[in-house]
Design a protein that fits this description.
alpha/beta; binds S-adenosylmethionine
Length: 263
Amino acid sequence: MYQMQNKIQPKVTLVGAGPGDLDLLTIKGAKALGGANVVLYDALANEEILTYAPKKSLKIFVGKRKGSHAYSQDQINQLIVDYALNYGNVVRLKGGDPFIFGRGSEEIEYIESFGISTYVVPGISSSIAVPANQGISLTKRGVSESFWVITGTTSDRKLSKDVALAAQSSATVVILMGMSKLAQIVALFQNESKGETPVAIIQNGTMQNEKIGVGTINTIGQVVAESGLGSPAIIVIGEVVRESNKLKGFYGKFVSNKVCARE
Ligand SMILES: C[S@@+](CC[C@H](N)C(=O)[O-])C[C@H]1O[C@@H](n2cnc3c(N)ncnc32)[C@H](O)[C@@H]1O
């Protein structure tokens, strides 16, 4: 399938692409891309990032996108190894940070089983950057002492059991991949008498088409239904949402929900 070349030094670097805003790629990530012979990339929020790779490098899409063939994780693992053995310097580019719900460690284990060196360039995870872009401080002295980052959809397509545990805590709760389970999430917080807890849902965070819905546990379902907010989105639950300098006005007095496009 691939042309064999001599004296190839296989090497794979997992690079975190950040949450979407091109400027939130790290300098180290841009440098790694600049040296790539091959870039294997997922469905990125912003494909402009590929312009950091040399023009002559191979750029191979291996993500899931409507209407296109989706590779299984096993196929992706094998492609990375094949390209590294045949082309040398491979960058595996993944959204956010490779180790936050990114299957980065699985890929590393497989690649290293072939004796190929791997490196990781951390990325700015959407779990922290997307709330921050809306002025939401996930921890705040006197308001929140910790935050949980949880997947809304586990490998068996279920809501993580950790959401129920997090609902019992006083932590800020950040849920990725949770939009299809919003009703279940709301019910878990209502069971803990947390119906008035503020919630923000941010779709396409840090991008030009960013959209946000704000409400409380009791109102957020209606906010989503009326606004058409969808994936990819981050759900942030906790008093820190109310504290955001950008969102504060919407919780002042009695106003409890809001939907807006990026300002
Ligand atoms: C498979 S996870 C990968 C997360 C990634 N590794 C990270 O650190 O950001 C994909 C989920 O991350 C969230 N996500 C990623 N980028 C986002 C963005 N720009 N805006 C909102 N949510 C985002 C969504 O919940 C999406 O379904």
